[in-house]
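Side project, low priority. Logging it here so it doesn't get lost.
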Amino acid sequence: MAVRPLARFFPAGRHRRAPFLQSSHQRWRNASDHRRGTTHRRSACTSGAPLSSWQTHLHQSVQGTPVRDVREDRLLMARIDILCVADEVDLLVYSPQIAERFGHVGLVLSAGDLPDEYLEYISSMLNRPLVSIAGNHDRPERAPLGIFQKYSEENLRPTFGRIRFSIKKESGLSILGLPGCIRYNQGPNQFTDLWMTIRLLRMLPKLLIRRLLFGRAVDIILAHSPPRGIHDGGDPAHVGFSAYRWLIRIARPYYFVHGHVHLYDLQALREADYFGTTIVNVYGHRIISIEKEG
């Protein structure tokens, strides 16, 4: 007599449906039997039937084999190294050996006052995304242009991911870009402390919502000027914005990256901690690292 195709799923002397024909309740009861160690039901692990994913997991648990909890994958930490540049062309970066020195970075940040040729060289040689903001010596982004200026080579160049009072998502990180510095003359990209406060207050609802949803409003604040009283200078041109201090307390970023204040002393203080945020002056160049839950 011919054997039915489904007969191989039925153990000898047992009347039991194949695993893919069982009801969800029956599969749950079988799994419960295995966890309790009962033997009056025969497991599909010994019947010769192919094992489903839940049966494999159950069999490994019964045999004492350590099983990885899939929830552990959510706790894996993803590390990214970031090259930050600002204010001055650094010969260690602007070098034929740039790939050997900085090939491990996954992102490039520019805190302003750098020529486009320099940023283009970094981005192309490393083949990494670049996010930048404008400094007080960069061309004003919204200045009126004459008919010939609109088509000049300078104004046709790419902006290299430049952001202005907005949040950009890049390489898995959220970055808030804040251009310019305190107003000290009639130059471009300069703002009063009051103007900056009002401008940031307009962003406050969005930042608070992101803080509630993600635990922090952004991962990095990329600014040209430092907060007032932290890394800023004593002269009128290098005083920081006081609004940045309450912004950091609300946004809680991993890093507040800035430039503007030139550091000619190699021993000068570059980093400071403020309410759990690392404030770092990236004059020249600096490598920072972020370990974020994947």
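Brief comment: Residues 271 and 280 are 4 Å apart (CA to CA).
Revisit when time allows.
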